[in-house]
Amino acid sequence: AKIIHEELATALGPNTPSYQTVARWAKRFREGSEDVNDDFRSGRPVSVLTDENIELVRQVINNDPYSIYDDIIAETSLCRGTIEQIIHNYLKMKKVTSRWIPRQLNDEQKQERVRLCRENLAKFRDGFWRLCNIITDDETWIYHRQIHHKSTNKTWIGEGASPRTIVRRSKFEPKNLFSMFFKSNGPVLIHAVDNNETIDHDYYIENCLKPVVKEIWKQRKSNGTKDIKLLHDNSSPHRHPHVINYLTEEGINIMPHPPYSPDLAPCDYWLNDYIKQNLTDQPDKKSLARAISKLIKNIPEEEFKKTFDKLLERLELCINNHGDYFEHLIK
């Protein structure tokens, strides 16, 4: 074996098998074996990737979708590597963060969402309604101090340095209520609600709807409110008979909006978040109102148009998802 190993070393250099391997080969050859394959060994372990173990892991996860690896190991007595193979390669699962939804919709509410989405979508597709004639609005509270999302607060720090701190916002910090109206070509009205005021139907008519109607006539001198549709949610001031009567008198129709549907309201699925992500800290209500007005007016017209185009996509997604919330399906 020593001579064979030396000759192999001369021929193969660094790729030479170890002396122990060469000695084992020589011994097998002397014993009459000329087969280069390994002998069958009865003690070789059987595979643990069986149908029974796959189903066992599936049952543990079905019983508790929040299970961690330690839980599954305790329930199945399988090793972590086997469990990982089963989960990823056989069950085709991955762990994701749970979705937050506005409300747990019942079957009746889902059916109502589907019904209204179908009716609204049909009117757009048949040409009875046009996106350029839709005005949408909503009310939202905006704080003077912005903390943004956690992902936007990440900063680079040096080795051994402490991360920056951000003081958690108190619900008692200064904030103001804004009512904002916009259409596919830009803003129509940005109204800062007076301090200590609440938006009831009278306030909504006098301080919001009347200025909006005035602005519509300013922008559309020849057509005025003809074919204009107002899309807003189902809050009490919006549904009040006086509000409905005023809009009817002004020739403005209300676009039906299903209850508990912020995913179908452009203010909720776009503008409110856009403002809060891009707004800087402001010392008082007056400067806050100026900053919001400037921010919205500087948004390119194309962004407003894209937001209304997405409304049609969202109507269709709601129908296809049988009335349930669908934002996890948006790519």
In short:
This protein has 331 residues and is α/β, with parallel strands linked by helices.
How is the secondary structure organized here?
Blueprint: H1 2-12, H2 19-30, H3 51-63, H4 69-76, H5 80-90, H6 107-125, E1 134-143, E2 175-183, E3 186-192, H7 201-219, E4 229-231, H8 236-239, H9 241-249, E5 253-254, H10 266-278, H11 285-297, H12 301-320
Parallel strand pairs: 1-4, 4-5
Antiparallel strand pairs: 1-2, 2-3
Helix pairs in contact: 3-5, 6-12, 7-9
Structure description:
By secondary structure, the chain is of the alpha/beta class. The chain has 3 domains: 1-35, no CATH class; 51-90; 107-151 and 169-329, 2-Layer Sandwich (Nucleotidyltransferase, domain 5), CATH 3.30.420.10. The chain has helices spanning 2-12, 19-30, 51-63, 69-76, 80-90, 107-125, 201-219, 236-239, 241-249, 266-278, 285-297, 301-320; strands at residues 134-143, 175-183, 186-192, 229-231, 253-254. The protein has a 5-stranded mixed β-sheet, with helices on both faces. The longest helix is centred in the C-terminal third of the chain and has 20 residues, at 301-320. It is elongated, with a radius of gyration of 33 Å. The chain starts with a helix and ends in an 11-residue tail after the last helix.
